[in-house]
Every structure is written in C-alpha cells, then in structure tokens.
Amino acid sequence: MRPPQTEETRVETVTAALIYLMTHYARTGCPRLALCVSRHMQCLASHPDAPVVLRDICASLHGAWSHAATPAASEKGALH
Question: Is the residue at 3 inside a domain?
C-alpha cells in the first residue's frame, strides 16, 4: 500500500498531470482536454503549497484555457 501523499507531492502530481494533459491537447485540440487543463491550472493557482511563480503562471493562463474549452474557440486554434 502506498503512503499518503504530502501536500508537496500533490502539487507535483497535479503539475505532472497538467503537462500530460497539455501534451495531449496539442496533439488533438480536444476542447474537453482544454477544460481539464483549465481546471488543473485553477487548482494550482489556488494551491497554498504551490510555488508562487507556478500559481501566478497558472492564474494568468487559466482564462485562455477556459476559452479554448469552448468548441468554437478550439476550432479557431485560440491558443496560438
């Protein structure tokens, strides 16, 4: 059985998942993946144990990814 994760590890896990989702979004352009990216960024932006620079970057990019999650925006390639 795995030991419970510390807060630091959770930040690292969410960050790793975010990179994974962004990579797959780049391949597919799927608006559902963009929504997942947006939600992960929102989580990291408000996470008290995330480094300040990570929180700031995620907070500033969250809106762009939310916009990319709409079907019309994803068809236009809004994140270029």
Answer: no
